[in-house]
Design a protein that fits this description.
211 residues; alpha/beta; six-stranded parallel beta sheet; two-stranded parallel sheet; 8 strands
Length: 211
């Protein structure tokens, strides 16, 4: 088995907890970056012009849903996945529309990973997420309508002032909206990721003091 991860290091804004490499992209993912990824896949292909043939292909980030469907299709063609390969695209709820999701399906994406995190808008705001719980529900519904049958939803645990009620609400949102898999993980505050000023850092410390 061979899995290929493609990092798309572009976001509309940086979440307060994130320590993955990313950079702002107000105008979408640069075509020059797609060119560079295609060159790298060619460079590592076993016989020069032979595709890599991964059994799984995963677009992570960053915010891969900022790719255009045409860019995603180009990268999928360059990778040349094996028949029946799982092709996953990470997506933020506020970046998708019915038209874009349908176009990603046509491009070859067959699994969607949505960054839901929590069903509480106040928690999302503290994390620096740009979406709301209502946008999460709409995004999951649009994914089902676009034909995705494999939909994963991220669920972030151990948030500031987290409760069982928030967990129950988030699981209900995911289960009732067409999610077929839940990916749960704990919030971890990495060094140099929180805010840009001491005041912001102190505010975050106060929020997480009971976690």
């Amino acid at each position: 088995m061979f899995g290929l991860y493609i990092h798309i290091p572009y976001c509309r804004s940086k979440c307060r907890y994130c320590d993955f490499y990313s950079t702002p992209c107000p105008d979408g993912v640069p075509e020059a970056y797609i060119d560079a990824l295609c060159r790298e896949m060619d460079r590592f292909s076993p016989c020069g012009s032979t595709p890599l043939r991964p059994d799984t292909l995963y677009f992570g980030g960053g915010t891969p849903s900022l790719l255009t469907p045409a860019q995603a299709a180009r990268l999928i063609r360059a990778a040349g996945p094996a028949p029946g390969a799982e092709i996953t695209l990470e997506a933020n709820p506020e970046t998708v529309t019915p038209e874009r999701l349908a176009a990603f399906r046509r491009a070859g994406v067959n699994r969607l990973s949505l960054g839901i995190q929590t069903a509480r808008d106040d928690s999302l705001a503290r994390l620096g997420r740009r979406h709301t719980a209502a946008q999460s529900r709409r995004a999951l519904g649009m994914a089902v309508q676009a034909g995705f049958t494999d939909i994963s939803g991220d669920l972030m645990l151990a948030l500031p002032a987290y409760t069982m009620a928030e967990l129950d609400e988030t699981i209900a949102l995911l289960a009732e909206s067409g999610c077929t898999h839940i990916s749960g993980y704990l919030l971890k505050i990495e060094p140099n990721t929180v805010g840009e000023t001491p005041a912001q850092l102190n505010s975050w410390d106060a929020l997480t003091s009971n976690v």
